[in-house]
Each structure stands twice: as C-alpha cells, then as structure tokens.
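queue> holo job accepted (adenosine monophosphate)
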Amino acid sequence: MNIILFGPPGAGKGTQSQFLVKNFKFNQISTGDLLRSEINSKSKLGIKISEIIDKGNLVSDELIFDILDMHLNKIKNLKNIIFDGYPRNFKQIKEFEILLLKHKLKINKILYLNVAREILQKRISGRVICSKCKKIYNIYVKDIEYQNHKCGNSFFVKRNDDDEKTILKRFDVFKLETSSLIEYYKDHEGFCEIDGNKEISQISEQIKAFLGI
Ligand code: AMP
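queue> job finished
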C-alpha cells in the first residue's frame, strides 16, 4: 500500500511516518529529508537549497522532481511507501503522476493531517531532533523515550527553518500552495482527513483504523 501524507508544518507527518515505519514496515520518503541530506553533504547544490529552505520557500518543482526520481531509481523493492512532503503544490501533483507511471507505482491512500494553527505553533517551538538517528521529539510532551534517548554520540538539535519568522512563511506557503491538494484529492476514494489535533498515539490509532492495519 502506497500513501501520500500531507499537512501543514508541524502537523506530525514525520512522527506518524516513523510510527508506520517502525510498526508496519512502511518506507518513508520525505522530500524534506532528501533535501536536508543534500545540505549536509555541503555540496554547491546543498548550499543553494539551504538558502531556500531557511527562508521558508519551496525549492523548484524541477529540482524536487529530479531528486525524487533519482531516489526512486535507487530503491530496489518499491512498495509500502509513504510520500511525506510530496507533492506540495498543483504542478507537483501533475508531475507526480509522471513519476508514478515511470516507477509503476499506484497511490492507495491519501492522508491529510489537519491541525489548528495554535497547536502547530506550539509543536514547532518544542520540536527537537536527535542529531544522530534523526528521531523527532517534543520538549513539551512527557516522553520516557525522549528522556532516556541514547543512540551513540547524539544530541538534540532544532531545525533551522523552525524559527518564528520562517515558520510564518511556511504556514503561508502551505495555505497558498499545498492546500490545493485537499481540493484535488478530496474525491479520491482513498482520501481521509485525520484530526491531527489529538495526542500522538490517538492520531496513530486513527491512521491505523483508516488504513485497516
Ligand atoms: P519538510 O521536512 O517536509 O517540512 O520540508 C522542509 C522544507 O523542504 C520545506 O519548507 C521546503 O522548503 C522544502 N521541501 C520539502 N519538500 C518539498 C517539495 N515537495 N517541494 C518543494 N520544496 C520542498
């Protein structure tokens, strides 16, 4: 089963993807992660990308298409994929159809995580990521795993684009560009709007129930 998972910044796409990866053998493809790994490689392209991301803008549709296409080429067994963060605007919806045909993939479910703005802001301000294993936590959530987290030489970092100014821009970009996905996919038989305002485990339960897993 292949899934598109989308929602505003801070909706919990990464957290819920991790849940599906860990418990149900899904494979997450996050275009944000692919871009961040290019940035970490310190390539010229990575430097350009970081300038765009740090302003809260989207990178170009052509670049994201190529990066995703190359990534899909590298994966041997393309199944149970969660597309996290792609498509993100109307042009990408159309280009995604080309990629799906090329890689012989079909989308079965489309999950929209809908979350209120105040909750998103709180989640983003508390979001920390393990520098080593990339696991996402929130300092406001009482979480034993977070308090005891050890995975080698890890420490918690914040994302550069989670600062207050950039996040406002990212909200605008979601509203202006990415919310067109709701209109486009809402009549797809596999579409479901998930109430993402709840606690992490309650959101996971809704997702599980909808996916029938
Ligand atoms: P995310 O990790 O999904 O929150 O993405 C972080 C940032 O990466 C976004 O704010 C964009 O700048 C960039 N990005 C991720 N996915 C895409 C995409 N499909 N198209 C354009 N830019 C993207």
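queue> The mean pLDDT is 95.
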